[in-house]
Amino acid sequence: MGRNAEATEEGVAIALAAARLSVKNAILVGTISLGESFDPQHFVGTARATLIALADEQDAAADAMSRARKAAWGRHTQPHGTHDYRDRDVRNLRRRAKLYAGVAKALRAKAEDGNQLRDLVEHAREAAWHDVEGNLQGRLRVEAMRPDQDPDYESMREARMQALRLVDLQKLSAQARRKRKVGAAADETAGAAS
Fold it and tell me: Can you tell me the distance from the alpha carbon of 57 to that of 35, in angstroms, rounded to the nearest whole number?
């Protein structure tokens, strides 16, 4: 396998990781925030749309590199910035355009392959479950922990007490004031109606 094929394969792997993250987030939002049940077929469409969007980005990058290559052709002056290409950059720009186009082509092929899409959804589901599992374990560990089991209990006690004074008690006091005002307003309304 040549350098270009390896670079394309690496680009596809990075794009698939991004797609997996996007589908994972869609699964989390759909199942947790919106209360939907997990339907793999529903998320196959999300996976396809994500891969196509990523392929479109790669095609746009390939077009940008082609335009930059054409603009750089025959320019032999000193560049004025990172993206101010010159004739000596033409070969590299051509290679980059081909790599972007190769990644786009591979992503479009994966977007049309049902098995690839189902695999992507399954990996995203596993990642979503791993996030949920980690959050649950963390909450259970913190909420179920007794002070004698927490190695940071003493060192964090002052911070917790300060948070109690500055946040929780202030909030409780504000709620009590609101209740008194609502109660006083209700008493005035009842008194006026009598």
Answer: 32
Q: Is the dihedral of CA 174, 176, 177, 179 positive or negative?
A: positive
Q: Are 72 and 89 in contact (CB under 8 A)?
A: yes
CA 130 to chain centre: 15
Tell me how far the alpha carbon of residue 16 is from its chain's centroid.
13
Residue among 23, 40, 7, 26 nearest 106 (CA): 7
Cβ atoms 51, 19 nearer than 8 A? yes
Residue 165 and residue 131 share a domain: no
DSSP state of 81: S
Tokens 């930059």, residue located: 68
Instruction: Give the single-character DSSP code of 2.
Output: -
Q: Which of 40, 142, 133, 58 is nearest to 101 (CA)?
A: 58
Using CA atoms in the order 29, 34, 38, 42, what is the torsion angle rounded to 10 degrees?
-80
Residues 53 and 134 reside in one and the same domain: yes
In terms of domains, do 176 and 124 share one?
no
| 151: DSSP letter | T
pLDDT tens digits, 5-50: 899 999 999 999 999 999 999 999 988 878 888 888 889 999 999 9
- 73 within 8 A of 38, measured Cβ to Cβ: no
Can you give the residue range of the structural domain that contains 79? 3-144
What element of type H or E holds 34? Answer: none
